[in-house]
Amino acid sequence: MRPARSLCAAAKMSSARASSFHDLAEKGYTVCSLGASATVRDMEQVALRLMGVSPSGTGSYNGRGGVVRQSIDGTGFVDSAAGAPKELQIQFHNEMAYATEFPKYVTFAMVRQAEEKGTTTLADNLTVQKKLSAGLLAKFRDLGVQYVRLLHDEAEKEAADFYNSWQGAFQTQSVEEAMRKGNSKSTFSILQRHDERRLKHTLWCPVFQKHPTHGELFFNSVLNRHGSWLDGHAVFGSLPLSERPYHCLWGDGAELSKTELEELRAVYDESTEYIRLSPGDVLVL
Q: Which positions ≥6 away from 84 have C-beta within 8 Å?
């Protein structure tokens, strides 16, 4: 006999399925509400159905260029709070825009609500692209960007200025193997010693990708990787941008200007949708 909670989740998925697929196709995202009694595995099953993939067809987050995140209850969901200082708001970004491959879908499951705030913000890339000035779009198109990370040894995990380790970033315990993975002409990736404690990873990336329906699409992690994101952090906020764990530069190595950043932030703010998820909600993008 199937557990009552699973039957409940299956029934709710059946009733929501048509509208969920319609929203996903028309709006680019959908929220399916299973209720607070739904388990993480219930939510995973709903997500897999909406994405149209089997459990073996999902991708892996760790080792793809971001922080290391732990699985929730052995599912494909990982803890999205990992790597993001709780006192700072996560900036707009396209998932894994800095990686050689990125996902077709991204799914979020509301397992436990934040004690305060906790609103999920979404922005439509097409809307953002239409609102940005022609000059800024042309510069992004011509230069691309550099995503820069400063990586500690994981032995320094308790240090106040620790953010991410080279072991986690490159999924190896060997610095030689990390150097091999981090230096690649084909992916425009450079890994080198920054100082006696940290390695510096610099990755050039385009900020436009070819979409099968929409054509050239603005696709990036500029605001989420720019060092100014950490302005309010107790430790990182006092450091120059070049010494913060994340930073983003123009493709030629120049800093983005204050005016350029202000335009980018303003356009994302104008294009934002605010969604308050409840326990048991599944959001698929």
A: 90
Global pTM reads 0.84
Given a contact cutoff of 8 angstroms between Cβ atoms, the answer to whether 83 and 69 are in contact is yes
Measured distance CA(32)–CA(139) in Å, rounded: 39
- In the sheet with 107-109, reading across from the earlier edge strand, the strands are 30-33, 281-284, 107-109
Cβ atoms of 64 and 78 closer than 8 Å: no
Show the tokens assigned to 211.
């979409």
- How many other CB atoms sit within 10 Å of the CB of residue 235? 15
Cα separation, 188 vs 200, whole angstroms: 14
Query: Which H or E run contains 147?
Result: strand 145-152
Q: Which two structure tokens, joined as six digits, stand for 121?
A: 């913000």
Read off the pLDDT of residues 9-66 as tens digits, 9 standing for 90 and up: 554 555 456 788 878 888 889 999 999 999 999 999 999 988 888 776 665 554 455 5
Asked if 37 and 5 touch (Cβ cutoff 8 Å), the reply is yes
Q: Give the chain's end-to-end CA distance (angstroms, integer).
A: 33
Closest to 274 measured CA to CA, from 120, 125, 127: 120
CA distance 272 to 214: 20
User: Which residues, 6+ apart, have CB-to-CB distance to 140 below 8 Å?
Assistant: 207, 208, 218, 220
